[in-house]
Design goal:
Elements lengths: L2 E4 L8 E11 L4 E11 L3 E5 L2 E6 L4 E7 L4 E7 L5 E15 L3 E13 L5 E4 L1 H9 L5 H19 L5 H13 L4
Length: about 180
Amino acid sequence: MLKRKYGARDGWKRLIKKKVNIRYIDEEKSYASYIKMENVLEPLFVQYGEDTICIVDNGYEWIQYIPLHRHYSITMMFNQEQTIIQWYIDITKENGFHPVKGPWMDDLYLDLIVLPSGKIIEKDRKELENAFTQGIITREDYDLAIFEGNCIARSIEKNELDLVLITSKLLKLFNSGED
């Protein structure tokens, strides 16, 4: 069974207090979830080679962009100054919306991380392979994840998937104060 993840991050014990705002973007047939981390149990750091990056702390913000007819979700992570820390791209089988829990994605395990420098890091390919060999996902799911991951990486490298533009539009949307 695939891991269904919800944009509001309910049940994440690290987040003691948060503000959540969910928007539907009609022209793009997408949802976006905004989370302001007001109080966290403890900061979360990730290691990429020699670099250690904090991705969760008090005052940090995440925006998760979930296009309904695509096979990915992009989480934009910002520090207290709204400076982008990283883009985290989940490769998904399907994205949707639940009337109570909000936007969701069925995670296909494979992820891409894009740093502000433009460096792209593939993550969790072993987890994808294990899910396939254990029968959790089908061959079609496995092939879809590999194909989409490769396509998205190429699109980012060619600036066809413009992460900075998407980020700018969503920050403007959530900073506008409109509900």
